[in-house]
Amino acid sequence: MGQGRSFHLSDNSLVTRRHSEGAQLKRLTITSELIDESNDPCNTVDLRKRNYLANSSLNSPNRGPKDTVKATHEKNTAALQAEVHQLRTENARLVAICSANLERSDNLNKDYESKIKGLEAYAKQLEEEKLNLFTRLSEIGTGRLTDSNPNIADLSDPNRPSQLAEQFTELYDSEWTDAFEYLSKVKGLENTRTVWTLLNILKTIYNVCFESRQKAKDQLQEAIVSYLGYTDEDKDISVIKKTERMLRECRAKQFEVLLSHATQDIREHLNTQLEGNVHDIIDNYAEKCVRVCWFLCRMDPPMHLDFDANKMDVPQSDDKNDLILLFDEAKFVHYSVKGMYMEYVVWPPLYIYKDGPLLKKGIAQGSNINPVKQSRR
Length: 377
Hints:
3-stranded mixed sheet, MIEAP_C, Mitochondria-eating protein C-terminal domain-containing protein, coiled coil
């Protein structure tokens, strides 16, 4: 009995050992197969999956291959779904944050654009106010300078003294030359008488403009003083300057009207002087003289034409006029004859005001004969 039991135990031990060896052999076989498959490039993707299935089949001898694959698939699917849900949740959170930031950025941009436009408009307004202030300050400064000093020209005035001097020169070069040609060649006047006639027209026009200017000034001044309620006893300097400034403004506004009246008066005078025979060329010369002389007299103080350089009167004969002056080359240039004596004035010199600086030299005929000595012979 004892031996039979001992033999029986030995058989069981042998069976157990064989089962163990069989399991080990099976494990080695599966491992060997997996290693062989891992060397195959087509099966490298499923290596982890097969290892997992092999381990599952060894650890769970009661499960079949289909159950193991299904369980693994369900587990992986659940994990992936959980991860997808987590990613979607995170994505939604980030999208919400981005949308909020974008909206806030748009609002800030609109706010900044509105502020920039407001600042630009304000800056433009300030620039306009600055320009207006500079303009007013310049006008005040220019007015003060020109009021107190006629040598300082208002550069904003297109008819300032330097420009008028150029117009005065152009009058001689153009209209005077045409009129001289007409009177000397067409009308047959002697050169000296032609020069005197044209000079006398200029002198007459200048005197009429000067008198008209003075008369208009007195009338305007009286009207302004009366309007402002001042009396003759008011001697305040500020009142005088204010009145003079208003006078200049009124004269500037009524310039065309006053010029038209002056032109009409001068036409009547020329018709009388030339016995109603005023040619268009002479009329053009006279009209240009009116405009230039009116601007000369419009200045404050008036610009001055010096017609008294010698005592030239209307030539009554072929005798030369008495010469009383040496030729002053600081004030005149020679006409057609040079000499140390002045015979007669052809074109007067122009001064910025009477006894003031010289702007343009006059033109005079020279002579080398002293008529005083000649008359004594």
